[in-house]
Design brief:
The protein is mainly beta. The protein has one helix at residues 2-21; strands at 30-37, 41-49, 52-61, 67-78, 85-100, 109-127, 130-142, 150-151, 156-163. β3 and β4 form a beta hairpin. The protein is elongated, with a radius of gyration of 20 Å.
Length: 164
Amino acid sequence: MKTLALSLFAAAALTVGVTTASAQSPDQQFGLGVQAGSVNGANVAYALSPSIHLGATVGLAVGDVPTTIMFAPYGKFILKGTKEFKPFVLGQFYVQRMSTQAVPGSPSVSSTNTGLAFHGGAEWFATPNLGIYGMVGVVDIPFYDGGQLAVGVLSPTIGVEWFF
């Protein structure tokens, strides 16, 4: 039994090693993904080249907090790293529509917020078609009244994207 388990483990490790040895950032492919963190949602991307990806994230948040619908087109600029692990800088323009209702049955109050956000992160390409990433906000430049410039290590986000 131990020999079988050890053999299966060795085979799995070899398979992962061979798969990741050929992984790299996609080139001229479409991708779909999901992310959670500062922005929860789904994203669509296109890899113009292995170092430039363009896309958009769409998110929806409901619950005790204001209901929020978000749309954020972005550009991801992938920097030099190893073949599988690449740091990146992501810049995005966001539009958030927030709606709250103070008392059930009362009219809801809505507002629209826009701005620019810049994130830093890294992505591990497990295969040429699968990327797992993490990022943190670095700068948030709001364009709406009452918005404040935020600089520093802001909310983290993790995500997965599949290219085909």
